[in-house]
C-alpha cells in the first residue's frame, strides 16, 4: 500500500493559480459572492527579511511557511480565524528557532538523553531541524489537481549535522492547505549505508494552537493513555484518568502512543481537531507498520514564559501545544533506505 501518489507536475508557473474544485467551502463561497475562487502560492519576504511561502486557498484559508526551520507560522481558517499562535516576540533572524506556529523537531526531543522518553544523545533543545535552512522543492510546490496549494521543503545531512548526529538522512516536509484543514507530513529517510544498523530518531510537529484563554481550554481524546510528566521526579508513566486535560499550571507531558486509543484530539472551546498518525515505509515506499503517534501537551504558564525572551509575558494564556511525534523509548527503528512518516491534519471549527 502506498502512502501517497505523486500529483502530475504542472507545466509552467502560470498554472500555479488554478480554480479550486470539489470543495463545498469553495462552492459556497462562489455561490455567495459570484466570484470564481482560486488557490495560489506566492513567494514573499517575511519578518526579519526572511523568505516565506504564502499559500492561499480558494476557500479563503491562508498558510505561511518559512524555509527557515520549515516553520509554518500562520494558518487562518476560511472565516479568518487564527488557528495557530506565534509569539509577537518571536525572533526572525535566520538563526534562532521561530517561537510559535509549527516548528519541526528532529532528530532529538530534549537537550539531553532522557531515559523516560529515550533521547538519543546531547544536542541543542529539539535538535537542529527547526533552525536549519530547508530547501523549497520547486517541483513539489504547486497547486494539486484537487485545487489545494502544496509546499514541499527538503533537508539532507551535512558535515555539520553529522557532527551532532552521526547519520545520513533525507527529510521532506509537505504542507497542504485544504479548503477547511491544514495537513502537514514529515518524512525521514535513512540514508546510512547497507551495513549500518537502523537508526531511531525522535521527531515532533511542535504545534502551537491559539486559544482565547488557556485556563478555560480542555483537551479531549487522551483519557486512558499513559503519560510521562516531565516536571515530576519519578520516571514511571502515569495513567490519565481525566476525560479532559486542563491547564492549571506549567504543563509538560508526553502521552505514549502505544497506550492511547486511535482517536482525534479535540481542543475546546475553540473546536480545533487534530488527527495524527505515523507509519514506517520500506525502500519502495510501501507501508510496513502503522502506529499511533505520541502526543506532547505543553504550556509554560506564567513563570517559565517570563524567563523566555522570545515568549510574550502573557502569551501563555493564548496558546497550548498539542504536538504529535515519535519520541517514546519504545519508538520504532528505521532501516536503511526505509522511512518514518509523521503526519497531522488540523481542522478548525468553522
TrEMBL record:
Root EC class: isomerase
Highest taxon listed in the record's lineage: Eukaryota
Ranges in coiled-coil conformation: none
Entry keywords, A to Z: Isomerase
SUPFAM superfamilies given in the database record: Galactose mutarotase-like
Reactions catalysed, as given in the entry: alpha-D-glucose 6-phosphate = beta-D-glucose 6-phosphate
Keyword S-adenosyl-L-methionine set for record: no
Enzyme Commission code(s) on record: 5.1.3.15
PANTHER family reported in the protein's UniProt record: APOSPORY-ASSOCIATED PROTEIN C-RELATED, GLUCOSE-6-PHOSPHATE 1-EPIMERASE
Family the entry assigns: Belongs to the glucose-6-phosphate 1-epimerase family.
Entry protein name: glucose-6-phosphate 1-epimerase
Amino acid at each position: 500500500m502506498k502512502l501517497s501518489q505523486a500529483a502530475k507536475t504542472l507545466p509552467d508557473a502560470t498554472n500555479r493559480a488554478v480554480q479550486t474544485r470539489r470543495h463545498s467551502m469553495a462552492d459556497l463561497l462562489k455561490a455567495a459572492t459570484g466570484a470564481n475562487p482560486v488557490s495560489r502560492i506566492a513567494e514573499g519576504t517575511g519578518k526579519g527579511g526572511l523568505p516565506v511561502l504564502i499559500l492561499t486557498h480558494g476557500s479563503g484559508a491562508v498558510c505561511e511557511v518559512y524555509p527557515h526551520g520549515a516553520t509554518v507560522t500562520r494558518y487562518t481558517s476560511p472565516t479568518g480565524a487564527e488557528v495557530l499562535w506565534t509569539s509577537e516576540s518571536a525572533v526572525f533572524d535566520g538563526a534562532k528557532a521561530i517561537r510559535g506556529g509549527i516548528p519541526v523537531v528532529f532528530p532529538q526531543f530534549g537537550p539531553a538523553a532522557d531515559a523516560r522518553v529515550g533521547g538519543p544523545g546531547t544536542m541543542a533543545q529539539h535538535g537542529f531541524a527547526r533552525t536549519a535552512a530547508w530547501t523549497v522543492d520547486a517541483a513539489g510546490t504547486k497547486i494539486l489537481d484537487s485545487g489545494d496549494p502544496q509546499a514541499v521543503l527538503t533537508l539532507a545531512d551535512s558535515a555539520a549535522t553529522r557532527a551532532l548526529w552521526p547519520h545520513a538522512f533525507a527529510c521532506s516536509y509537505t504542507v497542504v492547505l485544504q479548503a477547511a484543514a491544514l495537513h502537514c507530513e514529515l518524512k525521514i529517510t535513512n540514508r546510512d549505508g547497507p551495513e549500518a544498523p537502523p537508526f531511531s530518531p525522535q521527531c515532533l510537529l511542535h504545534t502551537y494552537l491559539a486559544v482565547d484563554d488557556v485556563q478555560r481550554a480542555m483537551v479531549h481524546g487522551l483519557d486512558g493513555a499513559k503519560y510521562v510528566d516531565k516536571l515530576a521526579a519519578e520516571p514511571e508513566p502515569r495513567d490519565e484518568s481525566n476525560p479532559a486535560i486542563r491547564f492549571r499550571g506549567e504543563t509538560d507531558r508526553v502521552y505514549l502512543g502505544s497506550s492511547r486509543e486511535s482517536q482525534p484530539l479535540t481542543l475546546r472551546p475553540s473546536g480545533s481537531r487534530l488527527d495524527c498518525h505515523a507509519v514506517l515505509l520500506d525502500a519502495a515506499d510501501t507501508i510496513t507498520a502503522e502506529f499511533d503517534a505520541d502526543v506532547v501537551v505543553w504550556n509554560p504558564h506564567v513563570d517559565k514564559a517570563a524567563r523566555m525572551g522570545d515568549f510574550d509575558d502573557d502569551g501563555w494564556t493564548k496558546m497550548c501545544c498539542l504536538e504529535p511525534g515519535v519520541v517514546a523509548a519504545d519508538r520504532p527503528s528505521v532501516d536503511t533506505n526505509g522511512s518514518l512518516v509523521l503526519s497531522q491534519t488540523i481542522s478548525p471549527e468553522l
